[in-house]
Write a structure and sequence with these properties.
Elements (H helix, E strand, L loop, with lengths): L1 E2 L10 E8 L43 E3 L10 E7 L4 H17 L4 E7 L4 H10 L6 E3 L5 H6 L12 H6 L5 E4 L2 E5 L3 E8 L1 H6 L14 H14 L6 E2 L4
Parallel strand pairs: 1-9, 2-10, 4-5, 4-6
Antiparallel strand pairs: 2-9, 3-6, 3-8, 7-8
């Protein structure tokens, strides 16, 4: 828990923060599957070859990026990547630099970067899946991977991962379903709760001394109840959600 003393006018004494710990991709090692021409992805259930119209491809570029079965036409050597438009320009610039670096590092493949509105991003993916028109790679949040994999909208990356690549990934960045890997995250997202120390002291709420001295669930519930009943705050806790 992190104690914070700024913003004396804060309306929520306890807040939830989503802290991103960036981890660069492995020089796009996964971008070796072809996105056009004769597919290199072996035929399997839910993945059929149709001449130059392939139904498979790619790798993982984000929160988590994944291979999507697709029939969308692409130029030879072109890898189409979908990503939702984020709120942080610095984040978007970072991803753009990844794409630029990969495209300039070689001449066999070119990433075609497409940004979609965040609010309708999931709807866009679902619509593309229903019309059999998914792009090569889609950027999705890790918790969504099992559902997309179960629906048959993703291709397992197991055949395209080297033991070395997997060993370099944090366990929490590997998106899996039924024992198969479907996504590799570019970074880890750590979740934290922070509170105003002065408020906790005012209402006699125990202040943890470190990670080895956390609140129990009962303590946390009691702290929220105390703050709610005080009438001083609009809400006892402020949760950031997507």
């Amino acid at each position: 828990m992190k104690m914070e003393e700024s913003r004396p006018d804060v309306q929520n004494p306890i807040r939830h923060a989503n802290s991103l710990q960036w981890k660069e991709s492995q020089e796009n090692k996964m971008l070796q599957s072809k996105c056009s021409g004769a597919p290199v992805v072996p035929e399997r259930r839910g993945v059929k070859k149709e001449g130059t119209v392939w139904k498979a491809v790619a790798s993982l570029l984000l929160s988590t990026a994944v291979l999507a079965p697709s029939s969308a036409l692409a130029e030879p050597g072109e890898i189409t990547v979908w990503r939702h438009i984020g709120d942080l320009q610095a984040e978007m610039d970072t991803f753009a630099s990844f794409v630029k670096g990969f495209n300039e590092s070689q001449s066999d493949w070119k990433i075609k970067w497409e940004e979609l509105p965040q609010k309708s991003y999931s709807d866009s993916i679902n619509a593309a899946a229903l019309s059999n028109n998914l792009p090569c790679v889609i950027d999705v949040d890790g918790p969504l991977i099992p559902n997309y994999a179960w629906s048959g909208n993703l291709i397992s990356l197991d055949d395209y991962m080297t033991p070395e690549l997997r060993s370099e990934m944090l366990p929490s960045t590997i998106g899996s379903y039924n024992g198969n890997v479907y996504g590799l995250g570019q970074f880890e997202a750590s979740l934290a709760i922070w509170a105003r120390k002065s408020v906790l002291e005012k209402y006699g709420i125990r202040i943890p001394t470190g990670v080895d001295d956390p609140w129990s669930k009962d303590e946390f519930d009691a702290a929220l109840a105390t703050l709610k009943d005080s009438g001083e705050f609009e809400t006892a806790i402020d949760l950031f959600t997507f």
